[in-house]
Design goal:
The complex is a heterodimer of chains A (283) and B (477). Helix content of chain A is 29%, strand content 31%. Chain A is built from 9 helices and 17 strands. The longest helix of chain A is centred in the C-terminal third of the chain and has 14 residues. Chain A folds into 2 domains: 89 residues, Beta Barrel (Elongation Factor Tu (Ef-tu), domain 3), CATH 2.40.30.10; 157 residues, Rossmann fold (3-Layer(aba) Sandwich). In chain A, strands 12-11-10-9-13-14-17 form a 7-stranded mixed sheet, with helices on both faces. In chain B, strands 3-2-1-4-16 form a 5-stranded parallel sheet, sandwiched between helices. A 5-stranded parallel sheet of chain B has the order 6-14-7-8-9. In chain B, strands 10, 11, 12 and 13 form a 4-stranded antiparallel sheet that branches. The chains are: A alpha/beta (283), B alpha/beta (477). The complex binds flavin-adenine dinucleotide (2 copies), iron/sulfur cluster and FE2/S2 (inorganic) cluster (FES).
Amino acid sequence: MAKIIEKRLIRLPDVFYFKVQAPRLSARARPGQFVVIRLHEKGERIPLSLADINPEEGTISLIVMAVGKTTYEMSLLKEGDEILDLCGPLGKPTEIEKVGRVVLVGGGFGVAPLYPIGREFKAAGNEVITILGARSADLVIYEREMNLVSDRVIITTNDGSRGVKGLVTDALQGLLSSEAAELVMAVGPGVMMKAVAETTRAYGVKTVVSLNPLMIDGTGMCGGCRVLVGGKTKFACIDGPEFDGHQVNWDSLLCRQRMYVHEERLAFEEWKKRHAHMFVQED
Amino acid sequence: MDKHRSERIMPERTPIPEQDPLVRRRNFEEVSLGYNPEQAVREAQRCLQCKKPLCIDGCPVHVPIPKFIALIKEGNFQQALSEIKRVNLLPGVCGRVCPQERQCEGRCTLGKRHQPVAIGALERFAADWDMKHGVNGSVKQLSATGKRVAIIGSGPSGLTCAYDLAMLGHSVVIFEALHEPGGVLVYGIPEFRLPKSIVQQEIDTLREMGVEIITNAVVGKLITMEEILREFDACFIGTGAGFPRFMGIEGEELCGVYSANEFLTRANLMRAYNFPEYDTPIKVGDRVAVVGGGNVAMDAVRTALRLGAEEAMIIYRRSMSELPARVEEVRHAREEGVRFELCTNPVRIIGEDGWVAGIECVRMNLCGIDETGRKRPEPIPGSEFVIEVDIVIMAIGTGANPVLTENTEELRLNSRGYIIADEETGRTSIEGVFAGGDIVTGSATVISAMGTGRKAAKAIHEYLQSKKRRPSISAPA
Ligand SMILES: Cc1cc2nc3c(=O)[nH]c(=O)nc-3n(C[C@H](O)[C@H](O)[C@H](O)COP(=O)(O)OP(=O)(O)OC[C@H]3O[C@@H](n4cnc5c(N)ncnc54)[C@H](O)[C@@H]3O)c2cc1C
Ligand SMILES: Cc1cc2nc3c(=O)[nH]c(=O)nc-3n(C[C@H](O)[C@H](O)[C@H](O)COP(=O)(O)OP(=O)(O)OC[C@H]3O[C@@H](n4cnc5c(N)ncnc54)[C@H](O)[C@@H]3O)c2cc1C
Ligand code: SF4
Ligand code: FES
């Protein structure tokens, strides 16, 4: 059981910040690692990245984007509530050293782990440039936090309502064509990470991505999280989640992520029926 | 054999009541219903009470078989269970899942000419009877020693080790990576073969004895071995061999390909058979192929049937007589309508739009003998053929999970990643650290895992006592 000691809505209507009490976990966790949570006895186990780690306080932070049943259920939890199961830190931490200029690219819930990762890269003496992408200005999240750990933050929006009009890859392309970078790190939806890896390939820049296949245990026991990297089968939960983006077989990852879309929709619809009051406006 | 003895021989086993195959293939209730008291007594009467009971030699932990059977015969069921429990902590589990035909029953004198005594069913009977009617005699634990022992992993080896150490008065903490304790007994072996309530009862007993169980605790990640050794006086590692293997053939990353561990974990631990009441989904499809021939494969294929597959089949590269699964499981699978493609091996999985569409196989010829002493299967050139399936489940074995061991450099491993430990004591290369179960032996059995847990408990106890005595010897009088 892990107690929620702070909860904030950080973007209407569906992105939430949670600070959770987890003394032992926070003492061990490193940026780039994740946890697996389960909310109740009938719940699913889902992975969430560590959005912050605070060993002095004995807390960790999570950023959750409500996309389906479990994440919506989590969005209903209040300060003082307990998360039934919290397991971690899982996965290998980000390899952080001084390399020179580091470009962090985040989209969707992918910005969550970038804050502690950026902080460490900065502390290691790197120049950190962050590119955050969203569909429109009001959907940009974590800009303030990323500003704290970056030398520069570039915002891109699809509709041009803020920053550079276009995708994160447009901004990345622009950046790499004028300035050299030693490392690009991308976290976000699979399609975005794939596009980032394709963009950087031409420049020969080392590109690390944090993969998000479906997971169950997160301890190497089920093999459900397997991904093809450099033609070899790897378990994202113990060998990753970070891999060389130029080596990842993206098509297989993107396809496997969609394995249960039908079931997920079913579970969510059932749940929505029981929580109709939350969705009046949409229905 | 003397005349008197052969006269009272009852050649036929008392049949063990089972659910009808056509009904049970679609439900998750237990297949075998077990003996009632009359049936148990009748079966117990078949035992010859041999002077040299070979059955005991066949049992990895030497359960006093004729003795407990005699007690059942007298109707003294409670006492029968106590006899078993002196050496076997989990009779309700072992009676159900031990490969008796290769252990006690395989050696039974009666079995030479007739059917062997149904030792497993009797063991199970005693345990079940106790669960229903037993007076919960409080266990007599020795007084607290003040020593703390950490147990890593809550499979049968860890549970047994914890029990023995708690009995000896040590304070025991179990660290378990998953959210539920029990190891393979809860995430792997299905409800229809081993009801979760049986494992739960054993775990409740441990908790009543004061054993603390910390779930969601991955040692090597949340806690290092170094910290464990700082906080505890000794430690037992029983993390199992739960790292699923794949064949390395084309198409294994398609949607619709599972490891048996994933398929069974979804179904058992996460209760996906109750989706959407439970949140975890599982895909079954109409046609399911399970690759492999062990207990794991049988569990997966029979789970697939119960989840609604129209056809579920085993693909195994050797023949029926080499199937490593328990004989009973193979019989049950066949009765339930599982198809067996024997002497057959997959060469690739065929995909369509990212999903499994079929599995291409080749027929195998059994010739010569391989290094394990079994017949060596070799592909018959040109015999390739395709079976249309929606789901493929790989049950070709598991290896050592690296999470704990790769984070603990001083722990010596063999070339396959298993922990090197002394056979008699479980002692490892680190002082105060003992290991047992599948992480030492490779995938084995519940009873052998329990056996190693018990030996290690004894060695840990001796270690703790010697540690206590050492300083006092050199201390001035
Ligand atoms: C290592 C890792 C770290 C993650 N970190 C975070 C995080 O910090 N914050 C956060 O909000 N989410 C994170 N995720 C994704 C999160 O686990 C899923 O969004 C969650 O499992 C969805 O569960 P659900 O029941 O709410 O929705 P579901 O009904 O399961 O899914 C709803 C929709 O989300 C998609 N989806 C489900 N799982 C994933 C996934 N793993 N990756 C991409 N899309 C998915 C589905 O295709 C579906 O369209 C992470 C995933 C991984 C593997
Ligand atoms: C599907 C299936 C069917 C089987 N059927 C039979 C059968 O019919 N008869 C039979 O005799 N045997 C059977 N077996 C084999 C038997 O279950 C195993 O040999 C036995 O469970 C091994 O016990 P163990 O104590 O070594 O570990 P396990 O039962 O494997 O348990 C290990 C535990 O350790 C935990 N763990 C792992 N790493 C860590 C870590 N770093 N930190 C904390 N915890 C950790 C795991 O989560 C797990 O709970 C079967 C196995 C499977 C998979
Ligand atoms: S070998 Fe068979 S007949 Fe003899 S004591 Fe054992 S169970 Fe009874
Ligand atoms: S999530 Fe099960 S092995 Fe990675």
